[in-house]
Amino acid sequence: KLGIVDLHPSIWQTSPRLDILYENIEWQKTYKKIDWAYTPPHHEYPSMRGKPWPQKGTGRARHKSKFDPQWKGGYKVHGPKGPTSFFYVLPKEKRVEGLCTALTVKLHQNDVHFVDSLDLPTHQPTYLQELAEDRFWGPSVLFVDDTDIMPHNIMFASAKTEGFTLMPVYGLNVYSILKHTTLVLTIRALNKIEKKLLHALHSCDNPKDQPAPPDEP
């Protein structure tokens, strides 16, 4: 242990909102989903004009085509006409609150650790595994740095170790935080996360969030 890190209470001491976490997770699991189900309409079936038997004289019911919906293998009335996208955007305030809630929960569970850098003396996966065991980081660890250009050794060590993930600050999300047992942040990543979240918490990007103009005298 090298020192004490000051954390901003607006980010790391928020009231836990399980409903906000649920909405963030459902959004991340749904917005990339595409339903490819497709049933062709009746005019796309072959031989639609061919009757299965003559109109009269057979004693059987009259049918226009063997691809009618009442037949097995026929077309489906008002069937799905994919691809159907389920994309939607979660409001910004819920995404920010979800990140603050996830970070707060991880901190109170003692599952957040801060390091100076992600540099390792070797690229062997066993060193990273022993390091995680000695520090009680658990089976899955999410390493976050302020840039997407990670140190060479930890890239090779984590690539050959299941459960260890490298992620830049701009990719940090609620689902990844809750999916991993431990969150390891560099000091540079911590400063960048706090700066961006504080700006989002206190910004007035939407017209409805703008303060009302002062009354004229």
From TrEMBL:
Q: Does the keyword Ribonucleoprotein apply?
A: yes
- What keywords were assigned to this record? Mitochondrion, Ribonucleoprotein, Ribosomal protein
Per the record, the major location class is: mitochondrion
Extract one GO molecular function annotation from the record.
Answer: structural constituent of ribosome
Listed InterPro entries? Ribosomal_uL4, Ribosomal_uL4-like, Ribosomal_uL4_dom_sf
Q: Which domain of life is it from?
A: Eukaryota
Give a yes or no for keyword Protein transport in this entry: no
Query: Got a GO cellular component term for this one?
Result: ribosome
Q: Which GO terms describe its biological process?
A: translation
Q: Which family does it belong to?
A: Belongs to the universal ribosomal protein uL4 family.
Q: What is this protein called?
A: Large ribosomal subunit protein uL4m
